[in-house]
Every structure is written in structure tokens, then in C-alpha cells.
Amino acid sequence: MLPLFSDAVHAISDAAAPIALAAADGEAPDTQGLADWLRGFFGPLFLVIVSIVAIFFLFTREITRFAQFVVLAIFIGIVFYVPNVIETLATAIARAMGVEVVE
Predict the structure, then answer these.
(1) Are 66 and 50 in contact (CB under 8 A)?
(2) Rounded distance between C-alpha atoms, residue 33 and residue 98, angstroms
(3) Long-range contacts of residues 95-100, Cβ cutoff 8 Å, at least 24 apart
(4) Please, are residues 35 and 42 in contact by the beta-carbon 8 Å criterion?
(5) HSE on the CB side for 28, CA within 13 Å?
(6) Which residues contact 24 (CB under 8 A, 6 or more apart)?
(7) How far is CA 42 from the centre of its chain?
(8) Could you tell me how far CA 26 lies from the centroid of its own chain?
(9) 98: which DSSP letter?
(10) C-alpha to C-alpha distances, 83 to 42, 50, 70, 102, nearest whole angstrom
(11) pTM over cut 0.70
(12) CB–CB of 76/49 below 8 Å?
């Protein structure tokens, strides 16, 4: 086996061992801060990309596409920045379909 590949395999197995042990004990891994970290990482990146595309549409004078893009960006921004919006929407859709939801 290649030395670099075996080192990578050992590093991955060392990192995954606590997760596998926690799953074997019946405990879920602690992911409390994961959503906040992802929002903190991808939120500013999302805003930069939206700003660049919006400026492009304004300079090319494509007002209709600009308006469509802004509406879509607002919808995606709500998903990024409003906590628990996906769970709330899923629960509301399930109740609207008549599925009994256990909370």
C-alpha cells in the first residue's frame, strides 16, 4: 500500500472511531453547533454571490431577470437564515396532507 494512502486511511479511521462508538452506544453524535457553523460559513458566501449576480443583471439592464433573481434569492436566504424553517414547513405540509405528526 502507498505510504500516503495508508496514512490517510489511518487518519480517517482515527477520526471516525468516536462517531462509530457513539453510534454503537445508541447515542447520536453531538451536532448542536453544526447548523450554526454552516450558516456562518455559507451565509456570507451566499450574499457575495447574490450581490455579484444582481449587479450583473442591473448592468446588462435585464430588469425582469433581476426581479426574478431577487425573489429567488430572498426565498433561499430565508432557508439559510431563519432557524427551523425546514422543519416547520415539513410539519405544516404533513398536517395539510392529513398525516399525524408526533412532536
Answers:
(1) no
(2) 33
(3) none
(4) no
(5) 3
(6) none
(7) 8
(8) 25
(9) T
(10) 14, 20, 21, 20
(11) no
(12) no
Angle at 36 between CA 15 and CA 45, to 5 degrees: 100
Phi, psi (rounded to 5 degrees) for 18: -65, -35
Q: Which residue has the cell 450558516?
A: 39
For 23, the enclosing helix (H) or strand (E) is helix 3-24
* C-alpha cell of residue 69: 433573481
pLDDT tens for each residue of the chain, 103 residues long: 455 556 655 556 665 555 555 555 566 666 667 767 877 888 888 888 888 999 998 888 888 988 999 999 998 888 777 778 877 888 888 889 988 877 6
Separation between Cα atoms, residue 99 and residue 24, nearest integer Å: 32
Cell numbers linked to 47? 450574499
Grid cell of 46 as nine digits: 451566499
